Amino acid sequence: MSNIGGIDETELHLTPGVNVLVGRNATNRTSFLQSLMAVSGSERATLKGDSEEGRVEVELNGETFTRVLTRRGDDVDFSGDPILDDAEVADLFAFLLEDNEARRAVATQGDLRELVMRPVDTEAINDRIDELLAERERVDDEIEDAKAAGRRVPDLEERRVELEDEIEAKREALEAKQAEIDDADADVEESREERDDLEEALDELNERRAAVERIASRLENERSSLSSVRSEREDVEDALEGLEGVDEDRVAFLDEQVASLRDRKRDLDSTITQLQSLIQFNEEMLEGEHTEVLQLLADDEDESSAVTDALLAESESAAGRCWTCGSEVSMEDVEETLNKLRELAREKRKERSSVTSELEEVQSERNEIETRVERREDLEQRLEELGEEIETREDSVERLTAEREEASETVEELEGTVEELEAGRHSAVLDLHREANELQFELNDLQDDLEDVESEIAELEGEADRQADLEEKRESITEELEELRTRIDRLEAEAVESFNDHMETVLDVLDYGNVSRVWIERATEQVREGRRKVERTTFRLHVIRMGADGTAYEDTVEHLSESEREVIGLVFGLAGYLVHEVYEECPFMLLDSLEAIDSDRIAALVDYFREYAPYTAVALLPEDAQALDDDYRRVTEI
Known about the structure:
One of its GO terms (biological process) is double-strand break repair. By secondary structure, the protein is an alpha/beta fold.
């Protein structure tokens, strides 16, 4: 790595398991951790102040990953080929440095549930649920069609049997009639050529009549379809007319509002975090913690003790020395300033809540507009398709009408020809031929009907056969829907269960005395979303202490020691690390700024964390590192 944080250039080797970065402050341990974050895909690393470009390269499991930081004015660009495509989850739950958001959420009373669910694209999940619901509805319609097809088959089978019986009877009648004609031909002397001409004319007449009926049937179907399409076009036009228009200026305004409100919320989050850290530090100073800071204000050990005593004096007007500038201050003034900071923090939290509500309302309106735009585009596209279909069907109706008229004229001509031929033949024979031709025509119609029925049966049986596949597809859709609907609940439940289980074990291992239990309760609360109130899940952190008389009572996070808050924040980060399975993609778990925890507990905590990450890197002071297992790799120079 080169030019990252305070590092000029260095190269280090890490081993699987725990790697302890040992050194005093300002020895580039945090810079090294930032380098690992950068090459993993994070943008929370800093470029060395006097450099225009920094670089990190890691060889891991036979692959090489790189990250380059380039200064662009006041900003820094990140490029290269990092380990992760998206480091958001790792930033939250694997890189547990001092300013880690999940780690600080406990001390700042942040939204624990929001942090756990932030990597989950709930909007995409809800969109997919809507898609699956629409698809399942379509499949349900197809299943119902398949069932209806199956119900129609028996009736058609019965109709097929009837047609087959009618055809057989008609064939027998035709054969009998043909026998009569043969007998009559034997008795009546007539021109063979004349008879052949008549039979040929009758055959052609029958064919032309059948053609006219087929054209008429097709024409009727086409007209019916044309009427249906025109009706649908009217419905689409009515829907378009009734659709509210979109004000482009309003859309642009809403986009600007969303961007502005998001920026404001981020600024408020940062300000609240800084204020809470500042308040926490000053409260701890007033309680007498951080004695090393107090000692710096004195010229010798006696004077340091005097300053400490002064700062811890019970009198609100007692004089002390400011731990920032070293000047003499009144404890009453310090408390007054601290109260102002607390009030400012409350105001900022209230403002953040207001900004969040406004952002949700603006986003809701923007989403409604987007839905209308998409609906209008769909309707306009469908209107265009319907217009093209209407033109096509109108052309078809016109063509079929002309064909029917032409075929009807041909039938009339053939009927005249048949009448002329019939006039010159013996009436009895002519009647027989006419009857035979009528039977043949009826037989042809019956055979056409049978073909139609058999074709419809085959089509319906094919449709009915799809029912099993459709029901299997519906079951698959339902399973995916159930999985999506429960995914958010499952992740929330897993996060709470993981935190509570690990917290119970860690408290037992670290033995924090009167802290008997720390746990998260998963509850629901009413919140405003746009113009309406909805139920939303929230994580409530509970602290149970044990009194001197052995009685358990609930306390608040504010009353925990800095060490206890740090441990809870780290365990919360570990819970998110496990729930989101960060270890599957990111090999590093990074720990820093553990000085608030005593050495033995740091050692126990590191031993506990090492089970869950391929590589654990922890930055420690020399005195804290001594308590860790000697088998852990030590890095003393960076």
